């Protein structure tokens, strides 16, 4: 399966990023998480540092476009094969940066992709 980084992970159970971690783990996807606060969700450690994360296939974004700006270079440096822009994270500026670095973009909902077998 596609090793996935949930970018913008939350410890709050009512957040979509939290639900995504649960669903990714339940689907057998190797899952990592990055967020503002460290903690654990569904056995996945949420880290507030990106320096030890590597070999990522997919980044699924859960932070708004304004907050994404400070992470542009870090996302490119992680060199994922694709970045999923979940609802509310759409960002044409980042689309262009990723495309220029040969990183596929997908404007979709990770939860829907998982539930329909399209992940």
Q: Can you tell me the CATH topology?
A: Rossmann fold
In spatial order, strands of the major sheet run 3-4-2-1-5-6-7
Q: What structural class do helix, strand and pairing data support?
A: alpha/beta
Cα separation of the termini: 9 Å
Shape: globular
At the fourth CATH level, what is the homologous superfamily? NAD(P)-binding Rossmann-like Domain
Series of H and E elements: EHEEEEHHEHEH
Please provide the count of β strands: 7
Proper CATH architecture: 3-Layer(aba) Sandwich
Question: What is the makeup of the main sheet?
Answer: 7 strands, mixed
In total, how many domains does the architecture comprise? 1
Radius of gyration: 13 Å
Helix share bin: 25-40%
Which oligomeric form is depicted? Answer: single chain
Beta-strand percentage range: 15-25%
Number of helices: 5
CATH domain class name: Alpha Beta
Summarize the structure.
The protein is an alpha/beta fold and 119 residues long. The chain has five helices and seven strands, in the order βαββββααβαβα.
